[in-house]
């Protein structure tokens, strides 16, 4: 029972984090369009690390 609650919290947290990353990256690109490539690269790296952390937490919580 508690495993399912923990898994739900992990998924909600990861979704919130990915939304924040995407939103802030779009704000940064809107302010400095010439830096779009660097911002996108950093965004993808951070998003991949966040997803990896979420999957790891789900596996350990199982």
Automatic annotation (TrEMBL):
The chain crosses the membrane at residues 43-61. It comes from Winogradskyella arenosi. One of its GO terms (molecular function) is lipid binding. GO terms for biological process: proton motive force-driven ATP synthesis. Signal peptide: none annotated. SUPFAM superfamilies: F1F0 ATP synthase subunit C. It is a multi-pass membrane protein. This is ATP synthase F(0) sector subunit c. Pfam families: ATP-synt_C (PF00137). Keywords: ATP synthesis, CF(0), Hydrogen ion transport, Ion transport, Lipid-binding, Membrane, Transmembrane, Transmembrane helix, Transport. It is found in: Membrane. Residues 6-60 form the V-ATPase proteolipid subunit C-like domain. Belongs to the ATPase C chain family. F(1)F(0) ATP synthase produces ATP from ADP in the presence of a proton or sodium gradient. F-type ATPases consist of two structural domains, F(1) containing the extramembraneous catalytic core and F(0) containing the membrane proton channel, linked together by a central stalk and a peripheral stalk. During catalysis, ATP synthesis in the catalytic domain of F(1) is coupled via a rotary mechanism of the central stalk subunits to proton translocation. InterPro entries: ATP_synth_csu_bac/chlpt, ATP_synth_F0_csu, ATP_synth_F0_csu_DDCD_BS, ATP_synth_F0_csu_sf, ATPase_proteolipid_c-like_dom, F/V-ATP_Csub_sf. PROSITE patterns: ATPASE_C (PS00605). The keyword Aminoacyl-tRNA synthetase does not apply.
């Amino acid at each position: 029972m508690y495993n399912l609650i923990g898994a739900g919290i992990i998924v909600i947290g990861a979704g919130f984090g990915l939304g924040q990353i995407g939103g802030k990256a779009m704000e940064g690109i809107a302010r400095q369009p010439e830096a779009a490539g660097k911002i996108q690269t950093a965004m993808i790296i951070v998003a991949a690390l966040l997803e990896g952390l979420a999957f790891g937490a789900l596996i350990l919580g199982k």
